Amino acid sequence: MSTPVDVPIRDESIRLGQFLKLANLVESGSDAKPAVQQGLVRVNGEVETRRGRQLQRGDVVELGGLAARVADEGELSDDLPW
Known about the structure:
The chain is of the alpha+beta class. It has a single domain (about 5-75), classed as RNA-binding S4 domain (Structural Genomics Hypothetical 15.5 Kd Protein In mrcA-pckA Intergenic Region, Chain A, Roll). It is about 20% helix and about 30% strand. It has helices at about 15-20, 30-35, and strands spanning about 5-10, 15, 40-45, 45, 55, 60-65, 65-70. The chain has a five-stranded mixed β-sheet with strand order 1-7-6-3-4, with helices on one face. A two-stranded antiparallel sheet has the order 2-5. Strand 6 (about 60-65) and strand 7 (about 65-70) form a beta hairpin. Helix 1 packs across helix 2 (about 30-35).
């Protein structure tokens, strides 16, 4: 796994499918569904098969060797490295 990149969100939580797109771990929202259903996505080190899972700040999402952490909106202003 790569070092997680902080991806800021505005609200208190975000759904896994939305976060995958926001973090550029998938190209489109429609790509999130099969990735999650196939067990390719991990949240905090565990396989997650629910695209609607609510993520909180600090949760780490992994897909395809890349990792992103849910961060507070004010925590990061840099672009993602991928």
